[in-house]
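Below is our example:

___
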Amino acid sequence: MSEKDYKEILWVSSFNKTTGYGVWGRGTVNAIQSSNDFLVKIKCPFPMPHNDPLRPLQEIEVEKPYVVHNFIPNYKLSEGEGFCSCTELRRPPDDQIYNLNQAKFVLALGDWCTKIYKECLDEPEKVFPVNFPFHRRLYGPIGPTVKFDIPDHYKFKFLFVGRIDVRKNIDTLIRCFKEEFGDSKDVCLLLKLNGEGYTCVPKWLMDQKPTKNIFWVPNRVQHMADLLRSVNAYICTDFGEGWGGPCTEAMLCGLPTIMPNHSGHLNYGNEYNSWLIDVNDWEYIGYNKNNIYQHLLPPNSMVKYPKEDSVRANLAQVYEQFKDAKREDYQYHVKIVEALKVERIVCDRYILEQFKTAFKYISEE
């Protein structure tokens, strides 16, 4: 292979398996490094385990690579380097816009982030869309499940997975679930939550005054797909996502998926393959004592909160449609059939084609 046959990439990321950016970096590197079009070296700020399959890519020799920083753009890059990043806001904070303007190129997560970045950067032509990669062999309607330590009379289980922070808007989800179902012994809400500092999960959850049919699922499940196949529906009520990985994973596992009709969710979700929550107009986050990420989500950031009556309506609709259905029959529902087709835009082949297109133009500059 001659030097002209491929492009060298140095991908800088945390590669953390429990964070959105880390999973994004892992999936993207896997998608492009298997192609003869790219030679990929990785750089991680933390030591990687010896058995990590990506570890050998740290030893790859490259001469003049395109350097891609797969992080939130809250720092300035060296000349000629680029960002691979995302936003859930109407307009990113000014310091992020400044750093993105200094970058040689910007790989934006999906159509939503591409649109936002093109609107606020001085050179919109240097912004290119790249999707969040998922492997169909890891997600699907058929496969192992898990057993929950809850009473057997809860036949219908809603699930949410995420970190406790103001953006996820989990308190709204809990409030809407309580208002819609009360202490029902037929339906429950499972919350797989992570927290830190003041957001110690048990204490935070008790502060929300949960009903008896709301349960915390401790982080003991090794594979997300096993967890998803063990419930009846997935729901999130955030005020914005760059993409929204758990919703995509739920759809690939054939679950009825409820999500806001807004932001990165619309990269893959629509009225034909999911249940969309109406949202309010743009409004400021404002000062919120629960916002532990104010440096990333400053009070003057604008977002769209989901309408609570629409949250309740979608909860009720999904429950009524699927409460008597067997899990194996879900795949025949018209929306689930369409949801499974999301695989076409998150597979390695699609991601690779996006990178070929982006770097064709980047290399010509």
DSSP finds eleven helices and 14 strands in the chain. The chain has two domains: 3-133+347-362, 156-345. The chain has a mean pLDDT of 93. The longest strand covers residues 156-163.
